[in-house]
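Hi U.,

Before I forget, here's the chain from the pilot set. I'm dumping it here mostly so it's searchable later in email.
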Amino acid sequence: MSIEKPDNERLALYQRFKESLAKGAGTDADYFDADDLVVIIDQAVDLNDEYVEIEALMRGYRYFPDNDELRSRKAFLFYELNLDEGVDNMRLQMPEGSPISQILMLRRMEETVEPQVVKQILDSIAAAPGKLDDETIIQLVDCASACGCYDWLQANEGRLRKKTDYLPTLLYELFIVADMRHDRAYCIKLLEELTELEPFNVDFWNALAQVLVNIGEGPEPNEPDFEGALSTLEYALAIDSKNPAALTLKASILIELDRPDEAVEALAGFEKDMQSPSMADIYIRALYLAGRTDKAQKLAADYSHQYPDSEELFHLVLTIQPEGWERLMADHYQSLSAAPDAAEKWLARACDYYSRNELNQAHAMLEMLRAENELDIKSMKYYITCLYCLGLYNECIERYEELLAQQSPLISPTVIIGGIMSYLKLGDKHRAKDAFARTKKLFPLHISELWTLSSALEAFGMSQFMSAVDTMLSRRGHIEADDLDIFHFPN
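Structure:
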């Protein structure tokens, strides 16, 4: 990230270049000199706009083929695209032993090179005379982190400060890799200095507030500092009172502090133009928690239509279930279905709900897999368990009867127990006996899973269960289903 040029100038250059592409104009290189193109490329990278990045690189390499900054950016684009031959060819065009060339070499070897070797090369770069430009500093920090040398960065921060022309670039990149490691104390140190160096940069204040609310997972576990974050955001909002990121974070903190009305007030100005799915999610949650259920449900439906692939809004839809939520869930599923592992990821999310005792949400997601004929032996177990634990015994029986009629390979001990126990819970002894007799014909079960210790124990438990059911059904009188209920709401 090149942050030396003011944001408004960077964005203006980027936008002007993008507009020239749309018009098919701007073929004269005089409109954009080499320095302009470097800024445009860096802005495009920050915005994840690969199209503009590539177009600017092509323009630059055509008119300024000897420009080192453009060459290095092209080399790292090849690296990001896994075009190894392109990376090697670009290195051949660089001065031998140049910092960028050495960094590119390390990135090509990062999965196999020993950290000690990386540190020796990084030491040679830091010890060489002269300054390092922004791009080289950015790539050096990223390379050291990727190669397992985060400790080297901390130990050599002082040396790197002397090597950089623009200190905020170094500090911000160090913050990025520290944040990846949840190194809260180091993040705060870096961001506090950044806010001193550039007190009118709202992004630095926002980043500091976000770090303060993060739950500690790194070397120094911590509790979120919500009040400290709110104070920090006041600085950000003093610079830009309508900054979407600052207001979104402020609203999320106010929700955590059980102040939903204030959270609603913070984002109310964006109601007709939510800037992101995250903002919409937080605003709708604030409305819901503030007791404005009807409005929350309407907006949940509206914004889910606008952002059908948003996981945050999908979770909200499952939680508050606005009118037509089943259709919204189907739209969300379809937005993900093109991925080859869509069903597997969907099941993983359903299992997350299950593990948190949120069985209604898990059941809804699993019902979608059933509708799409995507249930496998694992997901069928969760599906039947959800039906049973939610007390949907008739539905559980219906599904079990379908599987029995097909002699489905998806029948497992879990499925059998859920099905048989549903008859017993309803006290339907006659139908229970009939289903039990048909179930016994399936044995021995040929379950498509590895024969492990757990499956052996499962088979043993199944045998005990079948014996107990047989005994219960042979007795006269009322069925005491609870005596056999080995299904429990998940803890």
